[in-house]
Amino acid sequence: TATAISGSSSTEDTPPVSTNYQAPQIEIDRRRNLAIISHPDSGKTTMTEKLLLYGGALQQAGAVRQKAEQRATQSDFMEMEQERGISISSTVMNFEYQDFGIRLMDTPGHQDFSEDTYRALAAADNALMLLDAAKGLEPQTRKLFEVCRMRRLPLFTFCNKMDRPALSPYEIMDQIEDEFGLETHPILWPIGDGDRFKGVLDRTTNVVHLYQKAEKRGGKAGVQEVPLEDTVTLKATIDDEELFHKLLEDAELLEELINPLDMERVMKGEQSPLFFGSAMTNFGVQLFLDKFCSMGTKPMGRMADTKSENEEEMIGPNHEEFTGFIFKTQANLDPKHRDRLAYVRVVSGRYEKGMKVSHSRSKSGKKYNLAQAQALFGSDRSSIEVAYPGDVIGINNPGNFAIGDTLFTGGARVAFPGIPSFSPEKFAYIRSPNPSDYKSFRKGIDQLLDEGAVQALRQRNDDGGGPLMLAAVGQLQFEVVQARLKNEYNVESIMEPLNYSLARWVDGGWEAVEKADADGKLFGIMICQDRWGRPVLLFRNDWKAASVAEEEKYLDLKPWSTPP
Ligand code: GDP
After folding, report:
1. Are residues 132 and 165 in contact, defined by beta-carbon separation less than 8 angstroms?
2. Does ligand 1 lie within 6 Å of residue 278's CB atom?
3. In whole numbers, what is the pLDDT of the chain averaged over residues?
4. CA-angle at 110, arms to 417 and 116, nearest 5°
5. What pTM was estimated for this model as a whole?
C-alpha cells in the first residue's frame, strides 16, 4: 500500500550557514548500486528476482511478477506500466546482503527509451551488461552499451542462460573486445553449457562450484565446492570426462592469455569483469553478488558548480552537507493519489525526514521542506527516515522540481550539471480533436514534457497559438504519450508524422539563424524553437545537417541541448 505523502511544502526561513549533515563513512562504504542493461529477453527480470532472493528481500523468485513473454510493443509497454510491477515503476530496489546495502537501479530496456536509460545511469555508479549466452551482443545491448560508455561507468558482464546451448565463452569475449574495444576478464568461467552445464570455476579462488538444480521452482540451488587442484574429487564430481579435461585446459590457458584484473582499468571502463551463469537455475548468481560487493565501486561523488564563476568542484560522498540531484520525475504513479514524484540520487550527506533544502534554480533562497521521502520498492512505497550517498529517494513534487535540479543544505550553493537531452530523430504534430478537451490536453502534455517523456517544439515565430510538435528519440515514446494522455487525462489525440529525421540546436542563437536564412542557406530545413525559445533546426537527413554545419560554422550546431 502506498503511503500518502504530505510532501515538500516551501518555507521562507533564512538559511543556516552549516547544518552538518555529513554521512557516516560506514554508511557510504557499505553501499553498492548497480544498473542492469540488457537486450529484452536476456533475463533481466529473472536476474533481478534472483538477486533479491539471495538478498533475502524475496522468499521465492517469481513471486514478484510472473512474466510470460517479452513485451516490446506499445500495448505491452503500457500494460507493463499499468501493472506497476517491480520491473518498471520501482526504479530502485533496495536490499541488504551481508553487510552491504545494495541498490538495484532499473533501466528501460527498449532502445526507444534510451534517454531514460541515460538519466537512470546518471544516478548509478556501476553497471551490469547482461547477455544471453546463446546470442552474445544484440542490437539493444549495443545501443545501451554506448549510453553506458558515455557515462563512463565501471561495467560488469554476465552471460546468462548457460543452461541452454551457448556460444563458446571465448567467442563472447572476442565479440565484446572486437565490437566495443572492451577487454574482458573472466571471474567466473563456465563448465559446459546446455544440459551439460555443471557449474563455474571461480578464477579468483580457483574453487569450482558445482550446482544441483533447485528442488523447488524459484528456490535456491544446492552447490558443492571443490578446489581446482583436487583433481580426483573434481573428476568424480563433474562426472564428465570431456568437461573435466576441458576445464583444466581452459584454466591453464586463461592464466596465460588474460591480462590481470586491474580495478583502475575497470573504473575507467577499459576492462570488464566477466561472469557466466544461469539466472533461472541460480547457477553463479550468488557468486556474482559476492564478487560485485567486493569489486563494485561504492557511491562516488559528482562534479558540481559551487561558485558563481563557472568553476567546478568535486562533491564527494563525505562532503559535510546533504546534496542530491533529480534524475527522473513521474506523475500519476498511483491512480488513486495523482501524486507526482521526483527521484533524487543522494550524492553527499544525510537525508533526514523533515529537513529543509535549497534548490539550485531558486534565486530567492527559498527553502523546501522534505517532509517525507519514499523508498521505491515496487508498488509498496514506504516512507523513510534517513538516506545516505548512493541512495535514491522519491520526494513529492508539486511542480517545483525538474530533471537535473540539485537540492542541498548549507549556505553554499551547489549545482550538479544538467542531464542533456538526446537528439530527437522522430517528429510529429500533435493535437486534440475535441476543442473542449483542450485544457486537459495541455495539462497532460505539460506534465509529460516535465517528465522528459518527449520534447516539444514550435515553429519559429509561434508565440503559443500555433501547432505543437513533439520530438522523440524513438517512435514508442509517441505511443506512450498518446496512451498516457488517454489513460491519465482522458483525452484523445491525433498525431501527424513529419518528414524530418534530425534536430540540431543552434548555439549561435537567433541572429545566426536570421543570417543563414537571409542568405538562403536554410532551404528545406524547418526552423523551430524549443520549450525555452531556443532555435532548433530540423533536417531531412544526416548529409544535409553535416553540410550546413560545415559551411555555416557561425550557426554552431549541436546535436543535443541541456535544459537551461
Ligand atoms: P527480460 O526481458 O530481460 O527481463 O527477461 P526475463 O527475465 O523475462 O527472461 C526472458 C525469458 O528467458 C523468460 O522466459 C525466462 O524464464 C528465461 N530465462 C531467464 N533466465 C534464464 C536462464 O538462465 N536460463 C534459461 N533457460 N532461461 C532463462
Report:
1. no
2. yes
3. 85
4. 20
5. 0.83
Alpha carbon distance 536, 541 (integer Å): 15
- By the 8 A CB rule, do 107 and 471 touch? no
Q: Give the pLDDT mean for 437-458.
A: 89
Q: 46 C-alpha vs ligand 1 centroid, how far in Å?
A: 6
Q: What is the pLDDT of residues 146-205, one digit of tens each?
A: 878 888 899 999 999 999 999 999 999 999 999 999 999 999 999 999 999 999 999 999
User: DSSP for 95-125?
Assistant: EEETTEEEEEEP---SGGGHHHHHHHHHT-S
Contact, 412 vs 387, CB < 8 A?
no
For residues 415-420, give the mean pLDDT.
Answer: 84
CB atoms within 10 A of CB 102: 25
**Could you tell me if 281 and 211 are in contact, meaning their C-beta atoms sit under 8 angstroms apart?**
yes
50 lines ligand 1 (CB under 6 A): no
Distance in Å, CA 507 to ligand 1 centroid: 46
161 CB within 6 A, ligand 1: yes
C-alpha cell at 404: 537535473
The residue that leads in pLDDT, 186 or 367, is 186
Evaluate: CB of 85 within 6 angstroms of ligand 1.
no
Ligand 1 centre from 218 Cα, in Å? 13
String of b and e for 463-493 (b: at least 16 CB within 10 Å)?
eeeeebbbbbbbebbbbbbbbbbeebbebeb
| Model pLDDT for residues 425-444, shown as the tens digit of each residue | 999 999 999 989 999 999 99
Do 8 and 395 meet the contact criterion of CB atoms below 8 Å apart? yes
Q: Which residue has the higher pLDDT, 365 or 523?
A: 523
Q: What is the pLDDT of residue 82?
A: 45
Give the cell for residue 307.
561558485
Provide the grid cell at 432. 486534440
CA 383 to centroid of ligand 1, rounded, Å: 32
SS3 content of the chain, % helix, strand, coil (to 5): 30, 30, 45
